[in-house]
Design a protein that fits this description.
Order of helices and strands: HHEEEEEEHEHHEHEEHH
Number of strands: 10
Helix content: 25-40%
Largest sheet: 5 strands, antiparallel
Strand content: 15-25%
Radius of gyration: 23 Å
Shape: globular
Distance between the termini: 22 Å
Amino acid sequence: MKEKEIGIIPTTSKIYKAIREGYTGGSTDMFIPQLLDSRNKIYAYDVNALYPSVMINNAYPIGSATYVEIGEHVQQLRKESELFGFFYAEIVAPDSLMYPILQIHYNNRTVSPVGKFNGWLFSEELKNALDFGYKIKIIKGFSFDPKEGYIFKNWVEDLYKMRLEYPKTDPMNLIAKLLLNSLYGRFGMGELSGYSEVITNKEFKKFTSEDLVDVLNVIELGDNILINYKDFPSLEDELGQSDFLTNVNIAIAVAVTS
C-alpha cells in the first residue's frame, strides 16, 4: 500500500464518533432446517474470501471528509446519486421484508428493523437498500471522494496468492488468511480500554490524590493493589491532534462490513 495514502480519523474527533455509530459488523441469521423425508438434501454454501473480495472490488473513503448538512430540505436518496460517505438518514423499510438488510444499534443490540427509523449508514449500503423497497432521506453526513479509493488490490492479490501456494495444513496459509481478514478491523480500532498495574498502597494514594489518572477498578492483593485505569485526555486528545492511537480510519472498517 502506498505511504500516506489513507487519511487518519482520530478516535477523539466528532466524525469518528458519528461514523462509529454505523459500525455494526456483519449480518447473521439463523435457519432451522426441516427435512420432509429422507430424499431431501440440505446444501450448505461458503463464500470464499468474503471480506477480501469486498475489499478488492470497491472504492473506500481514504481522503478528507466534507461535512454535509441538508437542513430542512432533506434529500431523497436515489440510486444514481454521487453521494459517497456516511450519512445520518431517515429510513422507512417495507413491513413485508422477511430479511431486512440495514442494521442499527438499538438498546445495546444490533437489529435490522422494519418501519421507520434513523441512523448513520454508509452511502453504498443505503443505495443498495433502494432495490429492496427502502425509502431513504439524507439529513446530514460526511462526504468523501471515491475516485482514488481502490486501495486494497495489491494487498489482497499478493496474500491470496500466498494462500493458494500453501496447503491448509501449512502455517503460512493460516497467516495469510488472518492478514487478509483482519486488516479492515485494524482500521476500526477504538480507544484503549485502560491499563492494569500492580502497585503498592503508597503508590495508589499518589494516583488518587494527584488526579493523575481516571481509576476504573481496584482489587486489593494483600499489601499491593491491582489497579485498572485510563489516562485523562490531554488538550491535544480533545482537539484530535494527539499521535496516540490515531493511526486508524473508522470509515474504512465500516465501509468494508457494510
